[in-house]
Amino acid sequence: MPLENQDPVRWRGQQVNGEVSSTSRLGGTGDPQPQGIPAPDSSRTEAMTEGWEPGPALGDGDMTPGGALQQAGQEPGRCEEALMAELSELVQKVVKSSSWWERHGMDISILTCSFFLLPAGFLCLRSAQAIPFLVGVLTLGVVHHTLSVKGGHLASHNALTESKSWGKVWAIFFIELCSAFTAEQATYNHVKIHHGYTNIIGLGDSSTWKLPFLNRYIYMFIAPLAVPIITPLVALDLLRNVEWKAALRTLCCMFMGLYCHYWLLLHISGFQSPWSALLCMLLTRSLLAHPYIHVNIFQHIGLPMFAADQKPKRIHLMSLGVLNLPRNALLDWSFGHSLISCHVEHHLFPNLSDNMCLKIKPIVSQYLKQKKLPYNEDTYTSRLRLFLQRYEELMVHAPPITELVGIQ
């Protein structure tokens, strides 16, 4: 979505479909925080990652009842904090008026339904006929991605429950048992780094998704098939960064999840050889790997990128650097609204569930547009075409840093 002419931003670099083309270096979000890069303000980081609260109380002269800023000569930083506070207050009202079913129940029911579909999927694979067998592969593939991607993502943000203790349990179950990854590193890299430093060069710029030594067609259409193999290997490497007790727990959960899948294929689905069972595991676990990779790059890469010491305030950072895709029944179910059509809302309010992100979407979009802030939206096919055309620029070369004028 192109910025309006009056928006207080000036880009340095070529624009692509109204967006600044930018790429990032390898090893960004997955690396430890570099020395010399200040951590986000602790209170702000807490609001961004583990929960959020309305912003600081505003003075009588800050806003009218309608929300318009009135204080003349107000500092830009203060204005932006006031904007975020006003939007947070509008969203908080919706959250407080919502039932438990809307806040958590809807998404929990989707995960529960997916779990109960597992027996049907394994039994369908017993059939020697093509159609029931393919139904089994499709069922297990969708269930796997629903539990691992949607469940793991919500659990990493503690969005499935209001209890941090149960949130930890769900994170271990969905991330380690279902996804074969380490919960501590997944939460740190995604919540603390990616959300804390969204589109900040070398930190939360989605650069861990870059493999510049691959050409565009291999990366976009062939490499995703290796995700089920690469994921546990990366997890094993990251275990060096966690305590030995957590590492041991992760190893046990990863082994249990993978072995249970393998055992069920042999003893319930009736596969005759270990290799055929392993091949089926790879097939089901990579069924939606292509949109998984695509979504992770489509919604950030190619949008404005910032230096750590020159990033805009939170509301501008998220409105500039995050993009929503259209609703899609399959991806909404498997990945969740917060990763597809409500990604802007999710980055602004990361601890809300998928269903709540969908509920606040009209409020957030209307507010950002009313305040002349970007609200980036694009179609899946349009982004795919853009990345195929501009692959070298977006995924190989170093990104240009967006030059800010008037925001800070």
Automatic annotation (TrEMBL):
UniProt-listed Pfam families: FA_desaturase
The organism's taxonomic lineage, starting at the top: Eukaryota, Metazoa, Chordata, Craniata, Vertebrata
TM segment ranges: 217-239, 246-264
Sequence segments annotated as region (Disordered): 1-76
GO annotation terms (biological process): fatty acid biosynthetic process
Polar residues biased stretches: 14-26
UniProt keywords, alphabetically: Fatty acid biosynthesis, Fatty acid metabolism, Lipid biosynthesis, Lipid metabolism, Membrane, Transmembrane, Transmembrane helix
Native organism: Pelecanoides urinatrix (Common diving petrel)
Protein name listed in UniProt: FADS6 desaturase
Any GO CC annotation of this UniProt entry: membrane
Molecular function as annotated in GO: oxidoreductase activity, acting on paired donors, with oxidation of a pair of donors resulting in the reduction of molecular oxygen to two molecules of water
Domain of life: Eukaryota
Residue ranges occupied by any Fatty acid desaturase domain in the UniProt entry: 133-377
